[in-house]
Write a structure and sequence with these properties.
ten-stranded mixed beta sheet, 25 strands, 2 domains, Jelly Rolls, 11 helices
């Protein structure tokens, strides 16, 4: 984390260190390993905290203010060889176990993150796979946790030998302790993951690492676009890539994604506002995103009264759950809304941020849009992902699939530059004879960009 990409393709550079070490408390008053790890919800918020003796108390303060109970602690970096230390303040492994124990006793949990933009990652200095496996296991045991995060970026990402060694060690660790879950935190472009980050995930897959989550850093895009728009675009692109990589549906891919913006001003001077955070949380909940995070609790969110924590924590224990059974199709197909059959006053209008440059307006109040010849190779239950705008208020639409209607609620979206998605479950028959109609007989429905099945 703490990285800046001012233009696409530039090497990441670190932000100024926000927290100054205030001393080291390497001797904990209680052992975190004595307190069993709690299970993470299916969907949750776990913001980053740059851990030091001066910030460790922020977990309790944030939890008291917002109810948020899960945190990502950053960063463990190499001290030397196979020995890690906390980057901020150079605290030894074993520091802050009392704070972790207190959080777990209150029902919370932590993810411990290795790497980051500046300090490197243990696989670069620990050159024995067995010793590296033992080092990772020691972190799990010391803090009594089950989730490890690896923030691999900049020059660390380009170290293919270390990447291979890390993946070998993580596969061995999971073989020894199947409860250990592995997350990768990676840089992203508005279109999705670049080839080097995808190669890292492909290597992890080939080594047998069970990657629980790909957490994308939706920050510092440097393209002059709105920070929220870039974040939403990156999430959609990454979901498509992960669906292809792991042979799963797009809905299931969202369940393996984390989204991590900067809470406030980015290094490219874009500002990720609290309103943006609300929209991103709505998008994440609607699409079944597993994790929302942000950089960073102490330096960015504490001064707001933990507003970003409060907003993102809405996703925790939410009811939006992606399907657990893969749909029988071999992939997703997109249908642009402007290609639908329109009636009752629905019209096609321009839309700079829509996938095809157009959207449907004046849908509802008798106006309809009907998608015909929607094709699937096999009958079954599918995820219908609807890209829409609903500016000014929340709206509903009646979605009728092959004669079976359901009323779908669409949340308010902030402006006409923000396209949001909503996932619903539909039943389709084999072949190209499926019909999907959008309507609302008595009120206005959202503007439609496209549907994906």
């Amino acid at each position: 984390m703490r990285w800046s990409r001012l233009t696409k393709g530039l090497v990441a550079t670190a932000l100024p260190v926000a927290a100054v070490a205030m001393g080291i408390n390497a001797t904990a008053s209680a052992s975190a390993s004595s307190q069993a790890a709690n299970a993470f919800p299916a969907h949750y918020a776990a913001p980053y905290l740059e851990l030091s003796s001066g910030t460790a108390g922020d977990m309790a303060a944030d939890m008291k203010a917002t109810g948020l109970k899960d945190y990502t602690l950053a960063f463990l970096i190499p001290k030397s060889g196979c020995t890690p230390q906390w980057e901020a303040g150079n605290s030894a492994l074993g520091a802050f176990t009392s704070q972790v124990s207190t959080l777990k006793a209150a029902g919370g949990n932590v993810i411990i993150s290795f790497g980051g933009a500046e300090g490197g990652e243990l696989a670069q200095t620990c050159t024995s796979v067995s010793s590296l496996t033992a080092a990772y296991a020691s972190v799990v045991d010391t803090y009594g946790i089950t989730r490890l995060d690896f923030d691999i970026e900049g020059g660390t990402l380009g170290n293919t030998a270390a990447n291979t060694r890390r993946n070998q060690a993580l596969a061995a660790l999971q073989a020894q302790n199947p409860n250990v879950e592995v997350d990768y935190t990676l840089a992203v472009d508005p279109s999705g993951l670049e080839s080097d980050t995808l190669n890292l995930l492909k290597d992890a897959k080939s080594k047998g690492v069970k990657v629980n989550l790909v957490n994308i850093m939706t920050m510092d895009f440097g393209d002059g676009e709105n920070a929220l728009n870039d974040a939403l675009s990156a999430a959609k692109g990454t979901a498509t890539q992960l669906a292809s990589l792991y042979g799963i549906s797009t809905a299931q891919a969202y369940a393996r994604i984390g989204l991590t913006p900067i809470a406030g001003k980015n290094d490219d001077n874009e500002n990720f506002t609290q309103a943006n955070a609300t929209t991103l949380e709505t998008f994440a909940a609607a699409n079944g995103v597993q994790e929302l995070s942000f950089w960073e609790v102490d330096s960015y969110d504490k001064g707001t009264g933990y507003a970003y924590s409060r907003i993102f924590n809405k996703i925790t224990d939410g009811t939006t759950t992606p399907p657990t059974t893969p749909p029988p199709s071999g992939g997703s197909t997109s249908y642009e809304a402007e290609a639908a059959t329109l009636a009752g006053g629905t019209t096609v209008t321009s839309c700079a941020h829509c996938s095809g440059g157009k959207k449907l307006s004046y849908l509802g109040n008798g106006g309809t849009a009907t998608f015909t010849n929607v094709s699937e190779p096999a009958a079954g239950t599918y995820t219908l992902t609807i890209s829409f705008m609903s500016v000014g208020q929340a709206r509903t639409a009646v979605v009728t699939v092959n004669g079976t209607a359901q009323t779908v609620s669409f949340p308010e979206t902030p402006d006409y530059n923000t396209v949001v998605t909503k996932a619903v479950t539909v039943t389709l028959k084999a072949g190209s004879g499926n019909t999907i109609q959008f309507s609302n007989p008595s009120a206005g429905a959202p503007n439609l960009d496209r549907i994906v099945v």
